Amino acid sequence: MAFPLTERIFRLKERGATVRTEILGGATTFITMAYIIVVNPAILSFAGIPQGPSTVATILAAAFGSLLMGFYANRPIAVAPYMGENAFIAFGLAAMGIGWQMRLGSVFVSGLVFALITLLRIRSWLANSISASLKHSFAVGIGLFLAFIGLYETGIVTSSVEGMAPQALIRGASSLLSAPDVPVKIGNLRSPQVLLAVLGFLLISFFLYHRVRGGILLGVAVTAVLGYIFGLGKSPQAVAAIPFVGKYSLTAIAFKLDILGVLKLSFLPILLTLFLMSFLDTLGTLVGVGAAGKMLDEKGNFPDIERPMMVDAASCMFSALVGTSTSGAYIESATGIREGARTGLAAVTTGMLFLAALFFIPLVEPLQQLRYAYGPALIAVGLLMMGSVTRIDFGDLTESIPAFATIVMMIFTYNIANGLTAGLVLYPLFKLVAGRARELNAGAVVLSLLCLVYYIFGLPH
Fold this sequence. Notes:
This protein is about 60% helix and about 5% strand. It is mostly helical. The protein has one domain (about 10-170, about 180-455). The strands form 2 sheets. It has a two-stranded antiparallel sheet.
């Protein structure tokens, strides 16, 4: 049942949604992405940004972006600081000796550029110029990327160097650690956490097979309760805390960004990298979750893409102002969409839960350590997103090779932007080699050149 105001704002009937499914979907998305509350401040601390204020800034950025996505774009897609971009801000720029104030300044400027090209409809023109096979490869790559994150977070898959002494990776006279011969291996299947994660995946799969409403969220909840029963969850040190005061005050980081310092030629590679990473992350996420939620049109385009892209731009600028890294549409939104979310009410629900988390940071922190509970949800969603692979034209190598490169580079470099750029560079190249240049449009060529510039002059990582 929809209330008149809710129906007028979110058009639930038009999209075949109900208030119940939207709230459930928004809550599911929050559960699977709330780890960002803990992880993002931990990563940004390496850039010198204090963790207490950074935690509040992370929550505010997620709440602002998700609420804006819900009310302005009316899409069930949550927003938060990006994983990958935060590591670029913290580690990728470390060797350049740039303070965090200038790093945040570069986030703001890149967000401003996003807004300008979105207003000029350049972003949507570029987005709609990508072939259908490439778009569906985005969904497949993101699905496998999510599954890999879930497998690694739960310990089902782990680093091959886990348990090894550092000396084992030193070869010859070098004082540096060498890369392991095998990057990953199967985890400890006798570990209670790993066994719980496997059980969690089986539970979620069972609920999905029987089409139980809220099956993903229910699977996460049952697994978490079992973990606490067996003593595998830590108790919070406190239940609530007042934000914006004491160690959670934003005074130390809000509005401390240095914008003028980044407006020089030497910063162009940084701005280019942030621009392309965010543009492609957002594009890939929108197409990926759009495919999962059947939101794409018959050409594989995301309708009215300018609105969610403008939300992405505004979120970037807001994030820099409050003191955190680049924000944008989150791939974990696919979990809520798989629960039936179809409108912005789901994103508003996620945003409201983030706002509530501001007052319960001590309570939320230990919950986000329950990787064995939320990890299986990511694996399950990865499985569900694999359906898009059937819509890639494997009979045409000029379509399948760029699509394949997109998928494998996304997963095996652990970076969505790397996969997207690889596919976009290769697509026009193979069309030209095959003598089929007339199948290309100007947007595909522009995207390919931009991505090539990213590899030559940017800072890929």
